[in-house]
Amino acid sequence: MLLKTSLRSFLAHKGRLVLSLVAVVLSVAFVAGTLVFSTTASKTFDRLFSSTAPDVLVTRTPAKEVAGTQQGAKPLTLPASSVRKVAGLSGVKSAVGQISVTNATLINPKTNKAAGPVGGSSTTIGAWVPVSRSPMEVTSGKAPSGSGQMMIDADTADHSGLGIGDRVQVINPFGTFDYTISGIATFKGTNPGSGLAYLDVRTAQKDLLGASDVYTSISAFGDGSVSDDRIKSSATAALGKGFDVKTADEQTADGEKDVGSYLTFMKYLMLGFAGISLLVGGFLIVNTFSMLVAQRTREIGLLRALGGSRRQVNLSVLVEALLLAAIGSTLGMLAGLGVAQLLIALMSRAGMKISSSLEFDASVPIASYAVGIVVTVLAAWIPARRAGRFSPMAALREHGTPGDRATTRIRAGSGLLLSLLGGVLLAYGASGTGSSPAVGAGVVLTLIGFVVLGPVLATGVIRGLGAALPALFGPSGKLAQRNAMRNPRRTGATAAALMIGLAVVTGVSVISSSMVRSTNAQIDDALGADYLVQGDQTGLTPAMLKAAEAAEGIAHITEEKHIPATLTAPDGDSNDFTVVAVSKSFTKDFHFPVKDGNGDNAISRGISVDEDYAELHRLRIGDKIEIDYGDGHRQSVPVEVITTAGSTLFDKQFYIGIPTVARAIPAAEMPADTGFYGAAASGADKDKAYDALQKALDGYPQLTVQDQAGFKALYLHQVNTLLYLVYALLGLSIIVAVLGVINTLALSVVERTREIGLLRAIGLSRRQLRRMIRLESVVIALFGALLGTGLGLCWGISTQRLMKGQGLQILSVPVVTITAVLALSAVVGLLAALVPAFRAGRMNVLGAIASD
Q1: Which of 35, 39, 161, 744 has the fewest CB neighbours in a 10 Å radius?
Q2: Which of the two residues, 317 and 54, has the higher pLDDT score?
C-alpha cells in the first residue's frame, strides 16, 4: 500500500520533480566523471611507465634534492666506465648509456619561437638510442646519424609547423646549435605532454653535455636469471656512493607520482564542482519536497484519517525521494561518462594524450549511488518529518503544522546564536590576534547561521526590497512583493543557493583584490629595477647576460640564481631552503624592508633572513649560519640584515651575494642564472632602453622581458587564475540556483492555480501576471544576493585583517565586481522566471478557478 501510494504520487508529480532530478544528475555526473577520468588516466600512464621503464635505471644523485625541476640546473652525468660496470653485472643482459636534458630550448627559426607540443609543455632533448622498450618509434624519415641532424616527435612537429628538411636550433649553456630535421618519431602509446627531440649519441654528448664519453643515465635490462632488486643491489655496490639506482617498479611509481600531482589537482577541482552542485542542489530538493508536501496536505490528512501512521506518511515521502535519487544517480552516472570524455578531450588539447577507452571500477557506481541517494534522502527528510507531524483534522482543513510558530522561534534563536558566534570569531580574526582556524570556524558558523535565519529575514528584507514595486509596476508589483513574503521558508531556501555562491565569490574577490593592491604597493616600495628578464626551465646563459649588458641605455644588469641548500642556525636546527644568490647591484634594484642590519652588507659578505626565521631561531646581526650546498660545499656566513615581516617579495627568502657563494661552489658547478634585473642609465629614456633590451635579447625567444608594469601584470594574472576558478564554481552554483528558482516558481504557480484564475477573472491581464512572477523571482534573487554579498564582505575583510602581517596590508573592496554580481543576480531572477511566467500566462481562466 505504502509503495503503491508513493509510486502514484511520484508519477503524478513527475513534471514537478524533473528540475530536482537535474540537480541530482549534475551532482552525480561530476563525481562519476571525475572518478572515471582519474581511473582512465591512471591506468593509461601505468601502462606507459610499466611498458617503457628499463629493469634498472641508474642516475647521479643531486647534491641537494629539490622539489620539481630546478630552473637552469646543469645535467648530472655518469662516465662511460659506469655503463661498463653495470653491463658486467650478473643477470644483466645489456646496459646502455642514455642522454636526456631539460636545460636546452628547441627553437623554430622560421617563427623565432620556442618549438614544443600543445600546451607549452617543456621539450626534452637527448640522444636516440634504440632499445626494446623505447616509448617512440620512427614513423617518417630516419633517425639522426650525423652532427647536423635531429629527430623530433610528431606532436611537436604538428604544433610548431615543422617537417623533414626544416631547420631547428637548440640554445643551451654551451651555445646555439643548428640542425636539420631528419625524421619524425611517434609515441607508441600515450604522450604524457612533453615534447621530445633526439640527436645521435656523439653529437648529444658534445652539444648537450659539453664532454665526450658521458651520459645522464644508464638503462639496464636483465636476462631473467635474477630479480630487478638483485640487480639494483649489485649495481649499488659496484658503483658506490653518489648514484641513484631504481627498479622498474620504482620508476613506474615515480612517474605516476609526477603525473599524479597534476591529475590530483584536476580530480579535486572537479570534486569541488560536484560539492558546490551537491550543496546548492540540496536546497533545491528541500524546496521541492517541502512544496509537494504542502500541496498534498489534504491527501495526507485523508491517509491519516484512514489509519495511516506518522511513520507511514514519513516513509511515503522518503520513498519518493529514493525513487528520485535512484533515477537521478543512474542518469548522473551515465552523464559522468560524457564528463570524463570531455576532460580527456581537454587534456588532449593541453598536449597530454589519454586513452579514449574509458575505464572504471566499482568505486564509480558505489560513489554515484551513495552521493545521489544520501543527498536526496537527507534533503527530503526534513519535509518528510514535517509531513508526519500533521494531525488528520488539521491536514483535512489544510492548515499548517501546529508547531510553525514554535519552529520559527527556534529557527530565529538558533540562527541568531550561530551568526553571532561566527561574527565574534570573524571579528577576533580581524583584530589581528586571531588565527586561521578561528576565521575558518567563523565562516562556517555564519554561513549556517544565515541559512537558518534566511526564512526569518525574508519577510523584513523583501518588504524593503519590494517597497518600490507597487509604485513602479502597480498591481503586479504589489502582488509580487506579497507572494515573495507569503512563504518565508520557501523564499529563504530558494535564496540560500544564490547566497552561498555569491558569498564565496565576494569573499575571494576581496582577498584577491587586496592581494593585488598590497603586492603592487610592495613592488612600488621595494623594486627599484626598471626591467625584469626571465627564461624557461633552461635558465639564462652568460651569452644572454652579455647581450643584455650591451643594450643601449642600460646602466647595469643584476643576476639572480636559485641554489638549494641546507641552513643550520646557531641553535642547531637545520632546514632545506632555496638560497637566492644575487650580484652586488641587487641593492640598487631592490630596497630591503630592513628591521635590523644593513642590506649592502648582506650582499657583500653575509646573508639576509626574514623576521619570522630570525625570531624562531633568536638570531641577531652577526650570528653565523652554516650553509651546506651539497657535494661537500659548505660555508659559514653572518646574518647581516633581518627583513621586516609582511613583504611578499622578502618573506621566507634568503639573499646572499654571488661572490660569497663562489667562495664555496666552484665556477664549473655554479647553477645558471634564473633571472636578470636591469636599470636604465641616468638620464636615459626608459621606453627606448626597454626597446633596446628587447632587441638585444631578440635572438633568445625563450626569454620574456618586462618592465615594472609587465611585472605587476604577471602577478595579477596569477591571482586572476585563482579568481577565474572561483567564478567557474560560482557559475555552476548559479546554474543549479536558477533551477531552484524555476522549480520554486513553477510549484508556486501550481499551488496558486485557483488564485491565479481568480486574479485573471477580476481583470489581471496575462502581461501583468507574467510581470508579477518575474518581479517575484527578481526580488528573491536579490534577497539571496544581498545576503551573500554581506557574508562575503565579512569573510573577505576578516581574512585580509588576519593576513595583514603576511603581505595583505591594504584592504581593497572591488566595488565594480560586487555591483556587477548584484546586477547579474537580477538577470538570473528574470531568466529563471521565464518558463513559469509563460506557463502561468497560458492557464485557462475557468479551468484555473475550478481547480482544487
Answers
A1: 161
A2: 54
